[in-house]
Amino acid sequence: MLITAWSTNSRELLLHVTAGETELPDFDVPELKVRKAEYGFYRFKMADHSLELLKITDKFEFEAWLPNGEFIGSLEPILPEQTCRENPLVIVREGASAIPIDANAEPAASRRSP
Questions:
Q1: Burial, 22: exposed, middle or buried (Cβ in 10 Å; 0-12, 13-18, 19+)?
Q2: What is the per-residue pLDDT across 83-109, written as a single tens digit (0 to 9) for each?
Q3: What is the DSSP letter of 35?
Q4: What does residue 111 show for φ and ψ, rounded to 5 degrees?
Q5: Cβ distance 12 to 44 under 8 Å?
Q6: Residue 73, burial from CB neighbour count under 10 angstroms (0-12, 13-18, 19+)
Q7: Tell me, what's the pLDDT at 111?
Q8: Residues 40 and 46 sit within 8 Å (Cβ to Cβ)
Q9: Are 32 and 26 in contact (CB under 8 A)?
Q10: Is the pTM of this model over 0.70?
């Protein structure tokens, strides 16, 4: 389990339960088994210590938690050989489809007609 982020109001934690590494390249041991568990992103509420599994795709790579509760990230992992993010960023809301962030789009103010 990884503590991924604090909410902007510091009242919630975003946790990521993942299988982790199954190989130990520096040691001569058999491959580790992946345990059965409910993997995914969880919201932990500090007020009542409740834990809630969020409906976010398991392909999501977290980057930021926005004040409105949405998350920014990508839908594909950064590969070890990549030196920078090549995958487009998206906005994710629990239970909804990801919305791509187009870095090349004009800002809304500059698209207005005179």
A1: exposed
A2: 555 667 888 887 777 888 875 555 544
A3: P
A4: -90, -10
A5: yes
A6: buried
A7: 42
A8: no
A9: no
A10: no
